[in-house]
Amino acid sequence: MRVLVVGSGAREHALVLALAQDPQVTALACAPGNAGTAAVAEQHGLDVQDGAAVVALARDWTADLVVIGPEIPLVAGVADAVRAAGFACFGPGAEAARIEGSKAFAKDVMAAAGVPTASSLIVDSPADLDAALAGFTPPYVVKDDGLAAGKGVVVSEDLELARAHAMHLLDDGHPVLLESYLDGPEASLFCLVDGTTVVPLVPAQDFKRVGDGDAGPNTGGMGAYAPLPWAGETLVDELVAAVVQPVADEMARRGTPFTGLLYAGLALTSNGPAVIEFNCRFGDPETQVVLALLRTPLAALLNATAVGTLAEHPPLEWADGAAVTVVVAAEGYPGTPRLGDVISGSDAPGVLHAGTRRREDGAVVSTGGRVLSVVGTGTDLAAARADAYRRLEGVHLTGSHHRTDIGLRAEKGEVTVPGR
Ligand code: AMP
Ligand code: GLY
Question: Is 31 in the pocket of ligand 1 (CB under 6 A)?
Answer without folding.
Answer: no
